[in-house]
Design goal:
8 helices; mainly alpha
Length: about 200
């Protein structure tokens, strides 16, 4: 049985370590308590000849959150720049929103690592936000106003001997399948990741 003095010494050492690493004082206290309890347990199991208990660090539990967040930020930033350069403001706005959700996810990941409140809300909310945005965009493309074919396109089809109406129907069918596929993939990926974040942040 470990003495209270030993636990206190371990706690003080870990507390000082977390403060040195820049964690807020309140968070450092909580993390020091968890680290000290884990070390005491490992020492006790070692004396009993038992293997150490393996606990996945917080960084490993949600390490994909950092990569996903950075991916959203890069993708959103590129779309924002591309839209601004081509004066396609809808693309620029959507890119900006996607980048903002990436920043939100990254903030949630950092909150989770430092035991700050609302980490779950930031992580889950970012994925649900991206999901709603993608589903809304796909719905607009599928059921919004139909853009007529340009005169130049119709003239080119006539020169090739193709029927403009048949080509339009085929192109519309392909576009329909593409946007349905995008919506389905997003529902599985963003929805699944939101559920994963919800469960992991409750551990």
């Amino acid at each position: 049985m470990e003495s209270p003095e030993h636990y206190t010494a371990v706690w003080n050492a870990r507390y000082a370590e977390f403060l040195t690493r820049g964690f807020p004082e309140a968070n450092a206290r909580v993390m020091a308590s968890e680290a000290a309890a884990s070390q005491i347990l490992a020492e006790s199991r070692s004396r009993l000849g038992l293997p150490p208990a393996i606990a996945a660090p917080a960084e490993r539990k949600l390490r994909m959150a950092k990569g996903d967040a950075l991916g959203l930020i890069v993708m959103g930033g590129l779309s924002l720049v591309l839209g601004a350069c081509t004066f396609d403001w809808s693309t620029a706005v959507i890119g900006g929103i996607i980048g903002a959700f990436g920043v939100m996810e990254l903030a949630g990941y950092r909150r989770y690592l430092t035991r700050q409140p609302q980490a779950r809300e930031f992580l889950v909310g970012s994925q649900l936000g991206v999901l709603v945005l993608i589903l809304g965009y796909c719905a607009w493309k599928l059921y919004g106003p139909v853009k007529p074919e340009s005169t130049s396109t119709l003239d080119a089809l006539k020169e090739l001997g193709a029927d403009g109406s048949e080509f339009g129907a085929m192109a519309a069918g392909i576009e329909h399948m593409v946007y349905l596929a995008v919506a389905g993939v997003s529902l599985i990926y963003q929805g699944g990741l939101a559920l994963y974040y919800w469960r992991k942040t409750d551990e």
